[in-house]
Each structure stands twice: as C-alpha cells, then as structure tokens.
Specification:
The chain is mainly β and 162 residues long. It contains one helix and ten strands, in the order H-E-E-E-E-E-E-E-E-E-E. The chain has one helix at 2-18; strands spanning 23-30, 34-36, 41-45, 53-62, 70-78, 84-92, 109-120, 127-133, 146-148, 150-159. Strand 5 (70-78) and strand 6 (84-92) form a beta hairpin. It starts with a helix and ends with a strand.
Amino acid sequence: MAIRNISVLGLLLFLFLSCDQDSVYDRYQTVSGNWSIEEPVMFTIEEPDTVQEYDMFITLRNNNEYQYNNLFLITELNFPNGKQFIDTLEYAMAAPDGSWLGKGFNDVKESKLWYREGVRFRESGNYTLNISHAVRKNGNVQGDQKLKGITEVGVRVERSKK
C-alpha cells in the first residue's frame, strides 16, 4: 500500500512539474492592494540564454476594488551594458459589461498580459525590468498616487513557441 501511495505521489509531482516546461522565469511581488505610483516593482532576470527566443508577459492579480476598465503601465527593461527600453503600455482589464477579463474563481482575477514577443537576450548578464503604474482619472494630469485593487504584479518569461 505504501509503495502505491509513493508511486501516485511521484506521478502527481511529475505531472505538476512538467506542465509548465516553457516557463524560465515566473515571479510575483505583492503590492498589498495599494500600489504607489512612486514605488515601481523590480524583477531581475538572471543570465538568460543568449541564443533562445523568449516571450515576455506582465502578470497581475486584481480584486474588485480596482476601479478602472484599463491599466496603464510604464516599463523599463535594463540591459547588462546599461541600455534601456522604456515603454508606456495600456491593457484592457474589463469587458464592456464590467466583468473582469482575468481568470479566477473568486474576486481575485489573474491576467497574463503580453509585454514582448520574440525577445533575444543577446548580452550576457542580468536584465532588470521595472514596472510602474500610470493610471489616472479622466481629466486629471497627475496619476493616482495609490492604485487600489492591484494585489500582485509579476513577470513571466517563456521559451517562444515559434
């Protein structure tokens, strides 16, 4: 009986670990539902393969306190040699009827948002990605100082499927 239980556990562990072989980096940082505009989240991607092609995603978890149907982000990808790519991005977070586009069973939804496709990290070394929000109310020039409803911000890097 014990051998059978160990075999079943081993099989489940194998299936769990093999389900996500394309992922090479997947990290989240908690922002406690009040993401400050002055506190970007930072991720360090350590020594990626310089030959492999990757797809990059920004992953977010939000709850019902998020007040907007879209999300504006400013990203800064820093290369080992000091070069930077800075982008301002907009993502839809809700459908026209107000329902969240992310996946999840309760009031927390997870969204996997395209960031860059077909990326090659041609320089050896560590890359950093800083992500800030730039959400503001219509008619306001200044962004919301505290963005409510975003609970976690993450980055996912996968081997490209091209």
